[in-house]
Structure formats: C-alpha cells, structure tokens
Amino acid sequence: MYSDLLHSLPDVLGLANLAAIVIGVIAGIVVGAMPGLSATMAISVLVPFTFGLEPLVALGLMAGIYNGAMYGGAIPAVLLRIPGTPAAVATSFDGYPMAQKGEGGFALQVAVVSSSIGGIASALALMLLAPPLSKVTLLFGPAEVFWVAVFGLCSIIFLLGGNPVKGLVSACFGVFVSVVGSDPILGTDRFTFGKLELLDGVNIVILLVGLYALPPVIDLLETPLKTEQKSGKLGTEPIWKALPRMTGFWMTWLRSSLIGIWIGILPGAGGSMAAFMSYNEARRASKTPETWGKGEPEGVAAAETANNADTASALIPALTLGIPGTAVAAVMLGGLLIHGLQPGPMLFRDNPDVVFGFMWQFLFGAILLVFLGGSLATNSFARLLNLPRPLLGSVIIVLMLIGVYSIHSRMFDVYLMLGFGAIGYVMDKLKFPLPPVVLGLILGAFAEENLRLALRIGRGDWGVLFANTTSLILVALTVAVVVGPLVKRRLQARKTDAS
Amino acid sequence: MYSTLRNVTLAGALMGAGMAAAQDYPQEPIEVIVGFSAGGGTDVMARTVAPFLEKYLGDGASLVVKNVPGASGQIGVTETAHADPDGYTIGTYNLPGMMARTLDREADYDADSFTYLANVVNDPNVIVTSKRSGLDTLDKLLEAAAEEPGAVTVGMSSLGGDDHFMLTKLQNMTGSEYTIVPFRGSAPARTALLGGHVAMGILNISEVASFQDQINIIGVATDERSGFAPDVPTFKEQGLELVNGALRGFVAPAGLPDDVRGELLAAFDALKDDEEFLAAMTATANPVDVVTGDDFQALNAEILQTATQVWEETPWQ
Predict the structure, then answer these.
(1) Shortest CA gap A169–chain B (Å)
(2) Scanning every residue of chain A, which has its alpha carbon at the shortest distance from the alpha carbon of B210?
(3) What residues contact residue B143 under an 8 Å CB cut-off, 6+ apart?
(4) Which residues of A touch B70 (CB under 8 A)?
(5) Closest by alpha carbon to B161, among B236, B247, B234, B76?
(6) Cα–chain-centroid distance for residue A139?
(7) Which listed residue, A122, A262, A286, B208, has the most CB atoms within 10 A of its CB?
(8) If you write DSSP's letter for every residue of B65-90 in order, what string do you get?
(9) Same domain for B179 and B260?
(10) From CA A71, how far away is CA A108, in angstroms rounded?
(11) Which of left, alpha, beta for A181 (phi over 0: left; psi -120 to 50: alpha)?
(12) Inter-chain touch A189–B105, beta carbons under 8 Å
C-alpha cells in the first residue's frame, strides 16, 4: 500500500495538477470568505464541469477548494463577526474580539497557520491510516451515533459558559428547525405547509446566513457615523515574524487535530462540531480560561485547526465505505462517481494512482494554504475594513442574497433566510447565543434519525442505547460535560460565600 | 456556440416558413432534467447516456443536463411532467420511486403524465447478511425469521422504494416477518451491515459488488445471474420466484408528437448494442437493461400495480 502511495506521487507533481490545486485553494478561500457561499456549494457547481477533465485534475481542484474554504470562512468571522462557513462560527468567538483590539492581522495569521497544520495532520491520517480508521467508523451504529449527537448538543449548550438556560432555548430552536421536512424514517411531511421546498428540511447555509450575517450587517448600518476612525490597519507583520508568537500553541494544535480527525471519520457532524468541541477542550485545558472569548489567539488556533483537520479524514469513510463524514465529502463522492471511481475496498486496488494521488493533493493543498492564504488575507481582504461601512454592509447583503439564491435557484430560500435573519437579530439583542441553533439544526436531525433507527433495531427496547462499551463511554462523556460546569459553579459559589 | 446560433437561426427560418418538420428534430439543445444532485447514481447515468444519445440523434444534437434535486426526485420529475411536450425537455425517471410518490404523497403528476421513452438501468436487488449474524444461506435466514417473527433486522435505504417492495415480496412468498430499519440511503445501510448493527440488508447489486468479502450475499433477484457478481446465485435457482430491482430511465411529458418520439426511441434503441456505451455503464456500476417505448410503459404499469398492492396492504406511512 505504501508503495502505491509513492508510485502515485509523480502524477500529482504534473503541472496541470499543481495548477489545479493552487487555483482550487485560492477559489476556496474566496468562496469560504463570502457569507452564503460554502465549499459544498462551490464543489457541487464544479462537479458537472469535471466530467470532461482528467480525474486527478478534477480532484485536485476539489481538494484545494475544500482546504481553502475551511480557512476562508475565518476571514469574515474575524474581521466582521460573520462566519463565512458553518465551521467558522467558533473562530469568531475570539477572532472578532482580537480584530477589535487591532490584532485582526495576527488572528488571521494564527488562523491560516492552524488551518494548514490541521489540514496536514488530516491528510497524513488519510494517507497512512485510512483502512484501520475506517474500522472505527464501523463501531458506530445508530445507537452510538445518537450519543455522539447528544454529546455534541450538550457541550454546545454549556460551552459558552454564560447562561445555560438561554443556551438550551437556542439549541431547542435549532432542533425544532431540524424537524421541518419529511420524516427521516417514514417520509411523512412535518411542518412543510404543503411546500415542496421544505420537504428536504432547512438547508444549514440558509439558517447560518440569516442568523449570522444579517444581524452584524444591521449593526454595521446602524452605526455608520460613529465608526469614522480608520480601522483599516490590521496590525499585520510578515508571517515569519508572527510565527514565534505561536510556538506555545503546539499542544492545542495537536489536540485539535486529533479531535478534528476523529469527528471527520464519524458520519454527519462535520467541521462545525469539530471546531466547537476543540474550542471547548482547548479552553478547559487552558491556564487562563477567563481570557477566552475576549480575544485569545489560542481560541482561534483551536477552532481553525479542527475545522481543517476534519477535511481529509471525512474522506476516510467516504472512500472506504461510501458514507461521507461531511456534506462536502458527500459532494466529492459524487465527483468520484462521475469518473467511475466507486467507493469501497476495491477502489484502493483498482485505482490506486487516483486515490493515493487524491490524498497527496490534500497534503499539498494544506501546505499551500499557508503561502496563498497568508498573502491573500493580509493583502486583499484586510482592505475590506477600509470600505465605508454602509457600502460594506450593502455589498455583504447582496452577496448573501446571491449566495442563498444560488443554493437551489429559488426565491423561497431567500425569504426563509430573511426570516431567520429577523429571528437572529432579536436573539442577538436579547443575548441568546446563536451557535447552539446551528448545532441544534445539524445534530438534532442526526440525533432523531439515529435514535429511531436504534430503537427499531432494538425493537422498541431502550436498552439498545446502553448495550455496548462505545455507547457507555459516550454516555459518561455526556454526563461529565453536563455535570462538570454545574459542580464547578457550585464550588465557586461556596468559595465566594466562605470569603 | 456557433452551432447553437446557427440552429436557432435555422429554426427561426423554418418556423417562419411554417414547416417545422420533425425530421429536423432536434433543432435546439435538449434539456435533460435530473431529479437528483450532480454526482448521484441517476445523474451519472444521465451524463453517461447523454453523449451517446447525441451521437444517435445526429445533426449536431446536444443534450444539456439540468439538476433539479429535492424531495427524492419528485421536484424534478414534476417539472418534466409539466414541461412543453416538444421534445426539448426530457427527464430522468426512477422506478418504483416515482410511482410510489403518487401513492404516499400528494403529487402533481401520475402515470399518465408522461411519454415513456426508455428504461436504461435495472439494478437488481440482493439480500445480504452481516458476517456477524452467521446467517450465510437463504435457508438459515428463513429459519431464523420463522423462529421468532421480527427477530431479523433488515437495513435498507428507505420505505416505499425498491428495497421495501423486495422485502414485501419476500415476506408474502415465505410467510416470514422482519423488522425494517430504513436508513437514509444505501451507503449507511451497508455500513451498518458491515459493522454488524443489523443482521440482514436489502440493497442493489451495484452497491455490494465490491464488498463481497465483507458481507454474505445470499442471492440476487433476477432471472439470470448478474454480470456484476457472477458467483452469486439467483433466488430462482434457490426455489424462490423473487425478481425485483431499481429502474432508472427517461421520460418526456405526455403528448409528445409521434415523429419526435420515434426519433428519440430509435436513438435509445441503438444504445442496446453499442459496446462503448455498455463499457461506460459498467465502469460506473450501472447494470444496463434498455427497454423502450410501449414496453417501458407496460413495465411502469406493472410496477405501479405492485406498489399499489403493497400500499393498500401495508401502508408505510
């Protein structure tokens, strides 16, 4: 197998292939940076065009876009508090406060270096460990996947530390939105009001753009005159000078890479859950958790490492079992199918040059990210902040409308997005956290479907949820995540009482 | 680009002369509506078929694939049903799915909304079991199901699809009973089977052909053994008259002019013996079974009848 890996290298180093990766990474960063355009969408648009391309060139473009977009989403998250992709939500927690402190340039550099490290770790996992890691996926049946989803939901509710009740309300709203559409098991319509457009449920991008992009834009437009000071300076310095300030992050990079890879090989959850979990874990491990959320560079590092670390690893179950770990991997799987590359054990045997070449492309894409992302971010996107605020706000609104419309080419989605925008604005003002809504939508559907499948397998016996070690470990983790903060708060309260 | 321009001008000239004759079909690009997103099984079929249809339609014909995904293909097929029957809009068509939707949902189309062009792919069902279940023959499987009705869990891709009808046929034929676990799509069902989370699965042969070492394939629901897994016996060989599969083909809106229909059917008919086409379909794991025109319509009616019967006896919603 490792000889196949080396054998495929010369093909990848061809000019057309390298050009494809470079173009892909740049395109990915741009797409990721636009609120409303996501990697999933960019790759779906690309898939039909790749029909006439060499498989490796097509796959190189996709690998580049995927890697680029996962970083690109961080740019508006840091500069404007508008995550460009669902996976960049956690990046805004500390990235935006950093930008407000005039450290936006450094935040972006941390993001690009971390993204690159996460991507490299993930590509190495895919190259070296794909077959054994695909066995891990097999351990997760419906019952286990249900607990992963519950664990994710519980951690996000308690993640923001603030008010768990408000977190719970937000998560419930997200879960409610996930119920809309056809029932995952029986196919009956739920809350669709007879609209075919709602039958497949609410697309995550529509919710994200509405909730996350509209309120900050309204903020921008509400205060056009107050922000006359020149905010165009990002406080950038060459990346090699910034690197020494990041040496302390190695533990976070390592931990977040592992979390990202692990989430990637589990079907369904994807980059946003990886970023949230890794942010949570990094904050728990930090010596100064009180600085988190107020502009802690390590927070940006944690989120960005993890959301790139799930890119290549999401392809492990996709290539070996045909089940994609993320929505992007699902679209990429389509790209492979078009070229007659059927996922499964035979894929590695029948088309080693293409499969292993694809893995190299992920690695190269991740490495190139530092160079391309670093210069693009500091030189081009930073100028965004020089635009007059009303103009910037209008440009973003137009981009949002185009992005949402282009998902299915229908106005219905645009109205839906504006509706979520109104809800998001009110929630924002009332200080309800928005991340639980996003994760509620993603994980709610996931939890419901897998709970019902598990109960069918157990023929109605709830014991099936606790029937094996993997499930029990996940239950224990969930309990720890819920009870831990409560105990801590109680102890702190007692301490303050005593003093 | 130039040829499109030329065609448009030509079409305009002909219409002006009041003689839009069908032997000149096609004059403009033909839109092929695919009810699923790019890269799915149906999409790959449409894109593989397109260049060959262009070849046989001749006259610089061009087919343009348009993906209209959503609601398991219902949105796309509804668009096809309501398009102008001029031969410039055709669409992909899945069976039994498209007919099942007319039963379990309120659909804006029915069996009479289409001009049936051709079925192209017939992906037969297979019954598979997980290695962990130990049920490696049909007899052992039926025995386990008879011992305790419902004890055998069956992973499949959804209710109201070909897998589900296959299971219903098996249950009726053998008087056995199973617990259905409908996953979202066949890949998760297959993964649950590989992990031993369900005992049995009903999938399609193209989906399991490369997993033969990891799961037991009990049998294939065809008249003759499939080229995708020649070692797997049919159910007929094992004494069960089980034939079932997923069909994918093309339809046009009802009321297509006869001459246009004739041109299209001739092009589809030519696919049957095109070696290059057959090779391209095998490479994309699509078992070919070309059935055109009236035969396809009869096949559709037959499947609708089975679906109606299942729906009336055991509605899945």
Answers:
(1) 28
(2) A346
(3) none
(4) 196-197, 199-200, 408
(5) B247
(6) 24
(7) A122
(8) EEE---GGGHHHHHHHHTS-SSSSEE
(9) no
(10) 9
(11) left
(12) yes
Residues B117 and B40 in one domain: yes
Distance between CA B2 and CA A234 in Å, rounded? 50
Q: Which residues contact A428 (CB under 8 A, 6 or more apart)?
A: A215, A434
Alpha carbons within 13 angstroms on the beta-carbon side of residue A63 total 37
What domain range includes position B131? 124-220
Q: Which residues in chain B are closer than 8 Å to A199, comparing Cβ atoms?
A: 70-71, 74
Where are the domains positioned within chain A?
2-139+212-435
pLDDT in tens, B238-277: 999 999 999 999 999 999 999 999 999 999 999 999 999 9
CA distance A371 to A383: 19
Q: What is the CATH number of the domain that holds B268?
A: 3.40.190.150
Q: Which residues in chain A are closer than 8 Å to B38, comparing Cβ atoms?
A: 44, 47-48, 334, 338
- CB contacts of B39 in chain A (<8 Å) are 44, 47, 331, 333-338
Task: Name every chain A residue with its beta carbon within 8 A of the beta carbon of B214.
Answer: 345
Measured in angstroms, the CA of B39 and the nearest CA of chain A are apart by 4
CA distances from A302 to A329, B14, B43 (A): 22, 66, 39
Would B109 be classed as within a structural domain? yes
- The reply to whether residue B70 touches residue A189, judged by beta carbons under 8 angstroms, is no
CA distances to A15, B158, B294 from B119, rounded to whole Å, are: 42, 22, 11
Cβ within 8 Å, pair B159-A187: yes
pTM (predicted TM-score): 0.83
Count of structural domains, chain B: 2
Phi/psi of residue A108, nearest 5 degrees? -65, -35
The minimal CB distance from A51 to the residues B47, B179, B183 is found for: B47
Contact A457 B184 (CB under 8 A): no
What's the residue count for chain A? 499
* Cβ–Cβ below 8 Å for A187 and B192: no
B11, part of any domain: no
Contact between B220 and B234 under an 8 Å Cβ cutoff? The reply is: yes
**Within this chain, do residues B170 and B210 fall inside the same structural domain, yes or no?**
yes
Give the whole-angstrom CA distance, residue A65 versus residue A328.
Answer: 10
Distance of alpha carbon A136 from alpha carbon B25, whole angstroms: 55
Interface residue B181 vs chain A (CB under 8 A): yes
* 3-class DSSP state of A467: coil
Tell me if B146 is assigned to some domain.
yes
pLDDT digits (tens, 9 = 90+) for A255-273: 999 999 988 887 766 778 8
The chain B residue lying nearest A43, using CA atoms, is B38
What does the pLDDT look like over B38-81, one tens digit per residue?
A: 777 888 899 899 999 999 998 888 999 988 877 778 889 999 99
Number of Cβ within 10 Å of residue B17's Cβ equals 9
The answer to whether residues A139 and A474 touch, using CB atoms and an 8 Å cutoff, is no
ipTM > 0.85 for the complex: no
Please tell me whether residues B162 and B111 are part of one structural domain. Answer: no
**What percentage of chain A has pLDDT greater than the value 90?**
26
Q: Which residue of B has its CA nearest to A189?
A: B105
A65 touches chain B (CB under 8 A): no
Is residue A138 less than 8 Å (CB to CB) from chain B?
Answer: yes
